[in-house]
């Protein structure tokens, strides 16, 4: 029986009352124990990889500090959960979304590649890069599950404003600087400093290596193209052989699930 039939005839409009029952999840940044926080992050990363390699090839595509969640089981165990699946792509929908010329994501957290181009596919590494940026900002803004007073971190607040804008080139440059230069650890909350040392630093290193290797590859490819197009009579004796295709999906094998997981488990990179 529809709910409106329980009411008098004056309420019998052509409407249907529906209830949506969802699980009660809490934001990851509200966890006040670093061990539980790290355990929840590992749960989420394992979930990302499991879905990415599944038959459907599911990619989240919009990981932010607000989609990193956790649940607390009846026994008190904290489990990491990834929410906000409205931007998800799969093998079936990938081509459809790519042809519309629109790329989804929240600017402060998307891969820096997405600010300056539209890759043919949404790589798994894009979601890992979003995890990296999310953990970075959580480590700056939160301490023991609480937001730090903005009066304590005025410079961080100003930097966040430039990231949280519509200026893609500006955000791209900021992310490039973050990845390729040393950061000042004094900006991080003391609560998250161990995470900065054992996770964020190594994660930054593999992204730095990957992007640097790709830049070197592109430089070499451009040089060979110029040599091959040189006019006859120059000092170029023979045409330079073409380079193999670069593995952009993993940035030359530098950013893979295996490397990410080794870092999360405390293995050397």
From TrEMBL:
Keywords: Kinase, Transferase. GO terms for molecular function: kinase activity. InterPro entries: Kinase-like_dom_sf (IPR011009), Pkinase_fungal (IPR040976). Pfam families: Pkinase_fungal. Residues 13-138 form the Fungal-type protein kinase domain. The keyword Kinase applies. This is Other 1 kinase. It comes from Pyrrhoderma noxium.
